[in-house]
Amino acid sequence: VLASQFFYIQRAFLVLLLFLPMLVDGLGQAFGLWYSTNGKRILTGLLSGLAYGILIGIAVDVVHFALSENNPFTKPK
């Protein structure tokens, strides 16, 4: 169980890292520090799309665990 929790923490950290470029670029553009080019938008969009894919994978794992027979929280007593 501990190994799988560590795996989820790793994936969550990776998601944050993948969203970071879009956040930095968006804030920089919002405050007028620079203007985004199409190349930057494509790159940050691809990284964020990858992050969304990882988030969907985490959500599927959580739902699968919640519905599985091995879930100790849903076993009848």
Question: Number of DSSP helices?
Answer: 2
Task: Identify the quaternary structure here.
Answer: single chain
The arrangement of helices and strands along the chain is HH
Output the structural class: mainly alpha
* Strand segment tally: 0
- Give the helix level as a range of percent: over 70%
Main pleated sheet = none
First and last CA, distance: 22 Å
Tell me, what's the shape? elongated
Overall pLDDT score: 87
Note poorly predicted spans.
none
Tell me the strand percentage band: under 5%
Q: Compute the gyration radius: what is it?
A: 18 Å
How would you characterize the overall build of this protein?
77% of the residues lie in helices and 0% in strands. It has 77 residues and is mainly alpha-helical. The protein has a domain at 18-67. The longest helix is centred in the C-terminal third of the chain and has 30 residues, at 38-67. 4% of the residues are buried.
